[in-house]
Amino acid sequence: MSASTTPRVTILVPTRNRGGWLRGGIEAALAQTYEDFELLVADNASTDETPDVVASFDDPRVRYVRRPTDVGLVENHNAGLASIDSDYVIIVPDDDLMYPQLLERTVPILDRIPRAGMVHTSIDMLDPDGVTIAAGVNWTMGLTQTTIEPGASFIREQMKYSCRVCASTALMRRSALPLGYFNPGDYPPVDLGLWLRMATQWDMAFLDETLGGYRIHDHSHSAAVGTRSEQGYVRDVTLMRRQHEVKLHFIEENVSDEAESRRLRQLANAGKRNELVTRVRQRTVPERRFRETLSAVVEAAREEPRVLTDCRIWRLIGASAVGGRLTNRLLQTSRGYGKAAQ
């Protein structure tokens, strides 16, 4: 830490009853090669061994605040943010891991680019025991190199997808935090609303490096609104609806230009349909059982009837009617013809 009484970075770790994973998270944070930081553990009234876990770390950079009662996820985050004075802050959930160079690599970007409100990176997907199950996962849906996205471009791209930022690697400029921080009305995808509101005033940076570990398990916040898979979480229809609602609410509150508002709504609507089609595929491939496919299609169509105009839906139905084995054999044959033609 610098000679100043205020560190340049705060690592905010919101937690509740995750003492087992919290220990590894604190160890990873304290192992940062960039040292001018404080680690604020915001304990939302844990009833497990969390206080003892934090007390076991004899390090002056660790600050512990425990809520006397459960104030909820959003309020715990916001209260933590309201208590910091550092230039930059990163929120790392108690079940995720910072890699040693995360701050060393991201702090200079915000120092060098004053118009950037946030910088985020790729991640490794980890199983409950911390074993990597998917390496170098990039949530941006298109960025293949380090990029500074103008705020307006970030907003348009974000309309097409669920969330393009993994909060566990997102170093934020404290002055760029939107008024009120996380909006309780955006729950559960509160981070989506935060990024959109931030991008109305700031550019958003992506660093093409893998600097964090995102843990997949059945007791996470994400698992409550989706189904755990080897590659992450398959979002349920309720979450897709809420994400769409958050986007539309953002447009209504923050976009005054009529043409841009119309364009963003079109992108958001198309994004929801694409997410629904993707969910049908995730639920049916590779087994391609016809009844499961049909059930998934009916669920998607109830949420958004226009998914039935998407040719991918009918291809999935057709492939399931034919059967998984025959479909996969035909796909392999077609790939073989393609290679021969080359």
Question: In a few lines, what is going on in this structure?
Answer:
This protein is α/β, with parallel strands linked by helices and 342 residues long.
Characterization of this structure:
The protein has 2 domains: 9-223, Spore Coat Polysaccharide Biosynthesis Protein SpsA, Chain A; 236-341, no CATH class. It is built from 11 helices and 12 strands. The protein has helices at 19-30, 50-55, 73-82, 102-112, 151-159, 190-199, 237-254, 258-284, 290-303, 311-322, 324-341, and strands at 9-15, 37-43, 62-66, 88-91, 97-98, 116-126, 132-137, 147-149, 171-173, 203-215, 226-229, 232-235. The strands form 2 sheets. Strands 1, 2, 3, 4, 5, 6, 7, 8, 9 and 10 form a 10-stranded mixed beta sheet that branches. Strand 11 and strand 12 (232-235) form a beta hairpin. Helix 6 (190-199) runs parallel beside helix 7, helix 7 (237-254) runs antiparallel to helix 8 (258-284) and helix 8 (258-284) packs antiparallel against helix 9. The longest helix is centred in the last third of the chain and has 27 residues, at 258-284. It is globular.
The overall average pLDDT, rounded, is 90
> What amount of the residues lies in strands?
15-25%
Kindly report the name of the CATH homologous superfamily of the largest domain: Spore Coat Polysaccharide Biosynthesis Protein SpsA, Chain A
CATH topology category name of the largest domain: Spore Coat Polysaccharide Biosynthesis Protein SpsA, Chain A
